[in-house]
Design goal:
Layout (H helix, E strand, L loop, with lengths): L3 H27 L8 H8 L9 H5 L6 H9 L1 H4 L12 H5 L11 H9 L19 H12 L14 H4 L20 H9 L3 H6 L4 E2 L29 H5 L12 E2 L15 E2 L11 H4 L13 H7 L12 E2 L13
Length: 337
């Protein structure tokens, strides 16, 4: 009796089992699982897991400690969502601070009256709420991202991989939720906000040649996206040149005669924030140009008169240094017109 039928059957059984394993494996990969199976971490984000949600009105009915903050919150964009007629997801105190049933436990009208008679305000039990001062910056941001990742008006899809997030900066470090009706940072306040973490950039803007950021004519967010992006240095554009030519459109080109190897990164000659040299140059002329053009006739100058003539700004002759469509009198593109 031949063994060939048994071999064929075994092959089919092995293939079937492999298919089952592959299918089960793929299905497992698609399952949604928590990153940390740790209730302590869940409590850091959601608050006490044994507490119940009671609503903002119940939270603040007996407690007058946060009346001013509540007024500011009611006037804010998020406070407007408290209205069920808004058609938007409900956002309230417990959305960020966690369920509040344990926090207001024992807050009776009698206790409020007793505290008032003693000259003090009645406060809730903060220890049962999310401890904003102790949780990691990323956990703070997750509280905000619960709602804001689903909102198309906020460019937050790059936040998790952004420089700010990786540097332990949270949303509340820039946005004061209880400050008033406008939760965004005002453009004229942007500079001072960024300076808190970037004192080196502040020093650059104090140099003689700088972009008019201290004068409040342009702002950090004109070039950089604070929430992250695919470009280096959180730039709003894909390249440095694209970021610069938003304002300096006349330098964009393309030109018939272009400055070789310098068309994509303006930082080859310019520093973006501030410089001791004119026009934000890394070095003053002609020494900046001589780094790439050491064989210019300037190097052959011997007499004092020749040096006085030639040791001047290169752009006095090469006035269209960023590019031009016109040839020079010699027929070569030397950026003289």
């Amino acid at each position: 009796m031949t063994m060939e039928p048994y071999r064929k059957t075994s092959r089919w059984m092995i293939l079937a089992l492999m298919s089952v394993f592959v299918f089960v494996g793929c299905a497992t990969l698609k399952e949604s699982k928590p990153i940390f199976l740790n209730k302590e971490y869940e409590k850091m984000i959601a608050g006490r897991l044994d507490a119940d949600y009671v609503g903002t009105d119940n939270c603040l009915r007996a407690c007058h400690f946060h009346d001013a903050r509540r007024r500011n919150f009611d006037l804010s964009t998020m406070g407007a969502q408290l209205s069920r007629e808004s058609g938007m997801p409900i956002v309230n105190c417990e959305s960020c601070h966690g369920p509040g049933s344990l926090a207001i436990e024992g807050l009776t009208p009698e206790k409020v009256a007793k505290d008032a008679a003693a000259g003090r305000q009645t406060a809730c039990d903060y220890k049962t709420l999310v401890d904003m001062k102790k949780i990691p910056a990323q956990a703070k941001s997750l509280i905000c991202l619960k709602c804001h990742t689903a909102n198309a008006t906020f460019n937050l899809h790059n936040w998790n991989a952004s420089t700010h997030n990786l540097s332990d900066v949270s949303c509340s470090d820039c946005h004061n939720i209880h400050a008033g009706h406008n939760l965004k940072v005002k453009p004229r306040e942007m500079t001072d906000l960024c300076y808190k973490c970037h004192p080196d950039i502040r020093a650059s803007f104090s140099l003689p040649s700088h972009h008019p950021v201290p004068e409040k004519k342009i702002f950090c967010t004109d070039c950089h996206d604070a929430h992250g992006g695919m470009a280096p240095k959180n730039l709003r554009k894909d390249t440095v040149k694209e970021a610069c030519t938003q304002c300096h459109a006349e330098k964009e080109g393309p030109f018939l005669y272009e400055h070789a190897d310098l068309t994509e990164d303006c930082r080859a000659c310019h520093t973006p924030h501030g410089s001791v040299n004119r026009s934000l140059l890394n070095q003053r002329q002609p020494f900046l140009c001589l780094q790439c053009h050491p064989t210019h006739q300037l190097s052959s100058a011997t007499t004092a008169e020749e040096k006085r003539t030639l040791y001047t700004r290169c752009t006095d002759c090469h006035s269209t240094i960023h590019g031009t469509d016109l040839p020079s009198p010699s027929g070569r593109g030397t950026f003289v017109r």
